[in-house]
Amino acid sequence: MKQKIKSLSSKIVFFITIITLVSILIIFNIFEKINKKAFYNVETEKAKLVLSTIEPLIALNIYLNLDDRIEQLTKQLVTNPNILAIKVLKGDKLINEIKSKEFENHFDDSFVVKNSIFQPNSQKKIGTLILTYSNKNYKELLLTYRTLLLKVLFLLGILFLLFSLYVKKMLSPLREIAKLVRGYSPDKNIHIPFDNQNNEIGFISNALNNMQQSIMQYSQQQQNMNKFLEEKVDEKTIELRQQLYTNALTGLPNRRSLLHDINHYKEGALLIIDIDDFKEINDFFGHEVGDNVLISFSQELSEMIKTEHDARLIHLTGDEFALFYIKKPSLDSFIKFVTVLLRNIEKMVFNHKNNELKIRVTIGGTFQIQEALEKADIALKSAKKQRKDFLLYDETLKVEQQYKNNMEWTKKINWAIENDRIKPFFQAIYDNKTNEIVSAECLIRLIDEHDSIITPYHFLTIAKKSKLYSKLTRIMIKKSCQYFEHLDCDFSINLSVEDILDEKIVEYISYCVKKYNVNKKIILELLETEEIENYEEVSSFINEMKSLGCRIAIDDFGSGYSNFEYLLKLNVNYIKIDGSLIKNLDTDTNSQIVVETIVSFAKKLNMTVIAEYVHNEAIYNKVKELDINRSQGFFLAQPQDSITL
User: Fold this and answer.
1) For residue 631, which of 129, 134, 319, 571 sits 20 to 30 Å off, Cα-Cα?
2) Rounded to an integer, what distance in angstroms lies between the CA atom of residue 174 and that of residue 156?
3) How confident is the model at residue 206 (pLDDT cuts 50, 70, 90)?
4) 409-631 has which CATH code?
5) Is the Cβ–Cβ distance between 551 and 574 less than 8 Å?
């Protein structure tokens, strides 16, 4: 039997065929694996890009409890054909879930991507985003490149079979290409050699290089798009935050920012500063001028509060500003600051062409952090109704009833001032040794439309609240000085701490004393209260009045805040013992001890002592027994509209 000899070429062809088939399978598997991974990563990155793009907006809406905005945003997202469904979880609670129409049909052809939602400007996780993303594009791309790859590999197989003798030479470049392809990734640039050859190897190399370039360009485009979207999201986030928490006109924090601060801090205090009648500036000069005034006013306020380190200035809206203390100050420093603030605002002048614009403000405040804005606003409205510069919220007040009462009395006081119905009445003061009238205290009275005599108990406090108090003080100073100008009798006028600290009142006292030549007759009675704290200012007032020849008395001494120390500091001539110590002096041993101490102390300082509220003979006799110099009270004389010497 003749042995069949296999030709070498057949062996080579057979060997090459086996190698070709194996190579084709290897190359196909490699490219299949690379393409699957590459395309799957691309689609996954696209899904993650969507989540990372919308996460800040979802986080901000969750943080602000804007569920309707979240729903609107998710509805827009599912219009993308690649997005099948999206879930929004706040904590573990589902707050929104939207599915596209294609969800049920393509659920099996999809993958799910999750992303955590973080609180704005924080690493605190507040929820989770779950995105169901279609892999339709992934499968289409994979099919396209698989078809292309099969065609290429099929062509290679035919070439290997047809050019078996040439295959051996080409085997080495193919293996080198295979090695390069195995390390391929979209982020790594791999150059396939042999692309300059005018043959199948060159064609394959060019095809692979072009394919790689296309993938890299697509990946770069995705990265650029991702970066662009991140920048836009950051810009919009900053813009949105500025719009949410900043007043566009003045650049100050706005009402929303204040509410955030109030909710954030556990203690604090709040002032609302409202410009009175600001509408008139807008109506008369125009809104542009009004806006310029608001901007300048906000700048002036910012300068004024630089010393208040724990205070933040807020532009609420229009002509309303707020000052929020993140640490509660003491009540005294709080009120003192408001007093200084009001004075400084009164000095403000805003220039427009040849016009000087001045403003006045009303301030409402609260010392309570809970519902601070509402309470400060109530205080502001109360202050406006009472025509006060400042009012601190007090929930114990019967606001409506007080408003009504205050308004009625304010009208009465205004009517009395306009119709010259504010009159001084005079109560005689007697010398306890001679039983003669030595002076008279001038007491304010209001004569109403029915000629009834109204005592200050009913209207003086209201006058202070309605900014009419200084007018009443001026009337009493002038009319008292006029009455005693030609009488040979001393007289006294009551002054409060507010009067002493009011430069215009002090100037008016000096003017009247000089005009009516009563400097040797007038006695200025200073009400002894806890408000006498700044001895330097009080002492300065006393020295100024004494330089004119006036005498000084401390009224209501012993009323509850008596301090013997300031009697040593203040150069006074008289001490008037408060009626609370005198009214039961004949039977109250404790009152007798206190009065004896005051008398002894005053005599050592060469001060004259006057007993108030001497209302019966027993009290009068006891006053004389304790060696008090003078007496005043209804037992001796009631206040009258004239005095008989």
Assistant:
1) 571
2) 10
3) confident
4) 3.20.20.450
5) yes
